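pinging the channel bc i need a second pair of eyes. not urgent but kinda urgent?? the chain im working w is below, pasted from the shared doc
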Amino acid sequence: MHNLHKEKNNLICLVKIDNHLYRDVPPLGVLYLASALSRNGYRVEIYHIENNEIAAYGQIILKKNPLFVGFSVVTGWGVNPAVDLSRIIKNKSQIPIVWGNVHPSCLPQQCLSEDYIDIVCIGESEETVVKLASALENKSDLSEISGIGYKKSNNQIIINPRRSRIKNLDQYDIDWDLVDINRYITSCWGIKRTLRVITSRGCPFNCLFCYNLFFNQRQWYSHSAQYVIQKLSNLVKAHNIEALYFNDDNFFVNQKWAWEVLNGLKVPYYASVRSELINSEFAQKLSDTGCQELLIGFESGSDAVLKNILNKGTTEKENYNAVNILSQYPQIKISGSFITAIPGETEKDVQKTIQMICKFLEIHPNFKVILAFYRPMPGTELYKLSIANGFVPPDKTEDWSCFDALDNNFELPWLDKKASKRAEALCQAMETLDALYKFNIPIVKNIILQSILKGSFDSGLLKIVNKVRTKYAFGNSEHKSTMILRRIVNFVKKQKNLN
């Protein structure tokens, strides 16, 4: 057994496990924590790994015998790999295992009931993790550290009060030297060197399905505009970055701040926005500042769902208005996200969502559909409604892995078997329709569209089609085989027009 206290050790290992789809997405939260620790004198190593690398990295971490191992864990697919690596380390050492990020923040008691988790960090953790490192290094009491949960020697679980949010984010920075930044500079929108960054945290709105309700407690706060412009301008120049992908939950909460940042940076970008903000002036500013793509959470085509179930704070009219205006700027792509299988959603609501999606695909040439199963997110009001409607949460941490937007392996009791299969097929069908609108093959498009409207589509076939699509054309980059298919379709269309 490795003995943590055999000798003083100020090395900390931070782990983020992703699947291949997210390998190029930088672990921004982990980088903030690592930078805070490094600035306070700790040596930090970041392991951003995939599931098939767990065994190898388990041995690497054991040999290094760090002060503790921190895991960044989000509810969904990544839970189970984090469990596996935590067990490998815990079974062969006394190294403390610390979990942080969304999942342990919403379920600290359940996480701490597991024998492979010693401590959880709840909510924002730059200040918390430095205090925790000092306490573990000096073998001092954990009871005074805000923002953590832990177990006493008798396994009694203690949840300390939450830490107040950071008042000045400019105190904290990302040290990109802690990772190979070139791994995260990828092609996007045809721009070869694009990097994901984050400049603000949280969201002030009260959407009843969103993790921000408990994680950031409906607060939005940002780095100062001057800080963002200086730091990102230096980063762009140092690494020849051609575009920025803002990973902020809600970039345009403070429009004055947002436009100052964008006008100061003068680089192409991706950002998220709420539909009610879109008007002609806003759209023109997006175009003028180089917006390449917007993520808009439409969620539903039904006012009844938007208002009475999701508490989204937007309307059907605002959603349609946003896309109508943006259709005048076809160079600005839209990723429109929708949710189905929501408790209380009726067949009429589903049809209105389908109709909205189809209309958006018709009027905007670069509209991309993101339609996902509703997932009961612990800590939210809609989670409580889900339980009232018969949802039974997993009683083991590892079982939360099935709650993944890419692979729906969980049961929603308000859907019978037929409705569940239809909802799953609908998610697959809408993304297939998305692709067909882009290829613009009228006969195939109409067949799929009619089958969607009638609910008679073949879920098995569509699932296969979309697995291929996801694997080879995920996000904004295009696989060679997809490019070839697109060229064939365009050639056939051209020949048809010539004849």
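so The radius of gyration is 24 Å. and The longest strand covers residues 291-299. — does that match what u expected or am i reading it wrong
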